[in-house]
C-alpha cells in the first residue's frame, strides 16, 4: 500500500462521521506531499511503517492546529522531533 487512506487518517484522528472527509483528504495530500519533498526521493513504495506514522502525525497536527501560526508568538512554529526521527532514515543523501 503506497498511501495512507482516508479511513486510516480518520481512525487515527478518532473521527467517526463523514463531515470533514474532504478536509482530511486535503490534509493527507498536503502531508504526503511535504514528506515526499522532505525525503527528497518521493514516498517509498511500499511505504514503511515509520513513514506512514509520520504522515499520520503530520495530518493530526494539521487537523488539531488548523489555525495556529506560531507558538504563543515566541520562537515561531516548532516541528515535532518525532517527525524527523521517523523520517531521517528514509531521506535521500541529496537532501541531507
TrEMBL record:
Gene3D superfamilies associated with the record: Phage gp6-like head-tail connector protein
CDD domains (alphabetical): gp6
Domain of life: Bacteria
InterPro entries: Phage_gp6-like_head-tail, Phage_HK97_gp6-like
NCBIfam families: put_DNA_pack
Protein name, as recorded: Head-tail connector protein
Amino acid at each position: 500500500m503506497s498511501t495512507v487512506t482516508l479511513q486510516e487518517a480518520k481512525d487515527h484522528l478518532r473521527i467517526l462521521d463523514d463531515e470533514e472527509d474532504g478536509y482530511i483528504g486535503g490534509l493527507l495530500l498536503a502531508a504526503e506531499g511535504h514528506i515526499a519533498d522532505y525525503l527528497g526521493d518521493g514516498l517509498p513504495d511500499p511505504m514503511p511503517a515509520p513513514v506512514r506514522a509520520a504522515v499520520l502525525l503530520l495530518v493530526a497536527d494539521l487537523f488539531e492546529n488548523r489555525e495556529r501560526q506560531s507558538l504563543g508568538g515566541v520562537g515561531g512554529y516548532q516541528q515535532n522531533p518525532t517527525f524527523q526521527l521517523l523520517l531521517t532514515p528514509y531521506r535521500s543523501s541529496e537532501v541531507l
